Structure formats: C-alpha cells, structure tokens
Amino acid sequence: MLGKTGQQLAFKGFTPPYLSPTTAGPKILQGFVNANSACCHVAGRFGGLIPCGPPSEVCRERSKYIFWDPYHPSDAANLIIARRLLYGNSNDISPINVLQLIQS
C-alpha cells in the first residue's frame, strides 16, 4: 500500500533510497557535478519547467548529473539507486534489501 509521507511516497514498512541532495549525503553525491538541475532541459530555473523533448538542450556529461529531466534520475543516479535497493543497509532500504529478500 502506498502512503504519502511529506513529499516522499513509501510502501508500508519500506523506505526507498532517494538521491535528494538534502538526504543523500556527500558520499552519494561524490562524482556528480550537478544535483539541482536537469541534464535535459528547456526552461525554468533548474531546467524542470518543461519535460525533455525535441527542443531541449542536453548537457555534455550526462553521468555528472543526478537528474535527467524534471522527473527522472539520470542513468548514473539510477545505478546508485539500484545498488542501494539490492545491497543497501537499513539507512538505504528497510526492513531488508532486495538481495536479502531473495535469499530468505
């Protein structure tokens, strides 16, 4: 069941890993040069006013951005999310990670 907690959606008893600059911490943001604007952007202060499309500009180094467009993490950020879902500790995902779930 989905429940809304602040601005985060969470399953009951499950905490997903987020890559927000305010919650991820410096270790997660290491390697990224931009944590507050979209790589693919058209308009808006952070490139998040209009979704990515044909008139959009795309950054040169996609792997350096946390966000691809206003709504989606970049491939580099998705890789971190996937690793944290699979192998993360209780700070990343709880009550257990996906690997522990498969092994149980």
From TrEMBL:
Hydrolase as UniProt keyword: yes
Keyword Hydrolase: yes
UniProt cross-references to InterPro entries, sorted A to Z: GDSL_Est/Lipase, SGNH_hydro_sf
Keywords associated with the record: Hydrolase
Signal sequence interval, chain numbering: none
MF-aspect GO terms: hydrolase activity
Name listed for the protein in its UniProt record: GDSL esterase/lipase
Organism in which the protein naturally occurs: Malus domestica
